[in-house]
Amino acid sequence: GTAGQLTCTQANSTMASLSFWLKNLSPWHHHGTRHASPPQELQADVVICGAGISGASLAYHLRNLRPELKVVVVEARGVSGGATGRNGGLMWPGLNAPWPETIQKFGKDGAAKLMTYEMHAFQDIAAFVKGREDACAFSFFPEGGLTLFESEEEARVMLADTALQAEAGFPHVSIPVPAHELPQRLHSSTTAFVGGLRHPVVGRVTAARIVHELLREALDRPAGAADLAVLQHSAVTSIQALPEGGQAGVAAGGQQGGAVGEVWTAGAGMGAGGAAAMGVAAARAGAERCTLPPKLRVSVMPTSDSSDTPAGGLTIMCGAFVHATNGYNKLLPSLRDSGWLVPVRNQVAVTQPLPRDHPLPHASFSTRDGYVYFSRRADDRVVIGGFRDVVPHREVGTYDDTLVGLDPHVSACLRTYLPTAFPDLFTISAASGKSGSSSHAADKAAKRVAGLSLHELQAVPTKGSDHHHHGHSHGHGHGRGHGAAPVELQYELEWSGILGFTKDRWPLVGVLPAELSASGGAQNAEYACMGFTGHGMTRCFNCAKNLALMLAGEPTEQGFPATV
């Protein structure tokens, strides 16, 4: 993707398509007392821009490491309204980059260390959700994951990649599956695939639920901790460096800069009286200096009538600002225009529940050289996403995640893929796409695509290639058998989300050089935790932990990659 392709504007929260995860999750509500007349200026130690998995994880870790820090999370939509609430529902550990290229760049030892970190990061987020499975709607797929090869060339490349992974010390992450074993593993007689890989451990996740739990626990603060505020439907519009040793001063309206709690008192788990009392205490503490010296002036404006920001806007003086917006990088045009961090759109659809005895395995699947993924959910729905490789530019440079912006050809491919690949398990519904959010254009495209074989789908001409695969940001059926009549798939909803892809496929975590920052001046004031290249569910939590250590002035964990 080039800068010239970055022409779409970011969709606001009222225009964005509605994902299945967000449709079935109550919006985030405040756990404290909202003041009728919030101040026009706040003081904070850290401002986190973005309330997805990265931003929420950072808030959680900062509360554990440095509870005295005043933290404000600013989110242009609602909590989890961006990519975190729009993904494919997978937590799939892996390098997320070709092993030969990684070895060429970092050496064999370097590649092995990166994979070691990946598995550590996966175990870290898995440890958080352990004991919180119900709150986070998390489980491991009973039958793990399967990568399925659609061609001999794909098989050759992927098996060579897997051999290098095993040689590096990870033989059990991906295990080759010969073609003759596929019917038993797929519970299908399909001949669409020439082999595959088995991945024993893959997480089935509702990422937005994890974010809610992270913020809930961050707000349930220890005694004596400073304030934490989450400002929804509030957009950061500018960041300015303060003069050396600058002070917060007085807001334009004459109000003294207030404590975080004066906009929203964090009274989670307390009654109204306790929250109000905490608000009084926070107000009295308003004149106290923050722990970090102020370096930046952050301007915030409301994005909707339900915003937590006053109509006239809000100014926050802070010591550190963290960009946790993944592909939504309009505050960092230098990263975007250089191609270091570009938005990439991905479309996802969900079916109505299958019969409980349907033979499709309770597993996650990756096909089409990583450009298609699908999984059977705990409620027997199937979530399928991908196919950005069938459109020009492979959706690189696209910010548009609106309902009207859904690409009809991608929609058609999503709805016809499973019946094409598994004709003994599924048929295409005559009404496919007429429920939920699919469009008339998508229905017409589906009819055109329905007769294509998998190889014909692979031959759909595209213009250019970004050389990036999607990545995986991502009970057994009984009784029907292979001879049962195939099920007519009914699609319930379709949406899109914006991924953040980096040049080297590794996230950007740490301090931003002044020349790349939004303020363009302050040293060691702006930080990044973004650019997860479709693979954030395994890495965001741990990357945020290590960024929290940096902000706390402590060394990062042993093994945290210098390249990240």
TrEMBL record:
Instruction: Identify this protein by name.
Output: FAD dependent oxidoreductase domain-containing protein
Q: Where do the coiled-coil regions begin and end? A: none
A Pfam match is: DAO
**Per its UniProt entry, which superkingdom is the organism in?**
Eukaryota
Q: Where is this region: Disordered?
A: 461-483
Compositionally biased region (Basic residues) = 466-481
Name the GO cellular-component terms. cytoplasm
Q: What is the species of this protein?
A: Chlamydomonas leiostraca
Instruction: Show where the FAD dependent oxidoreductase domain sits.
Output: 45-269, 311-444
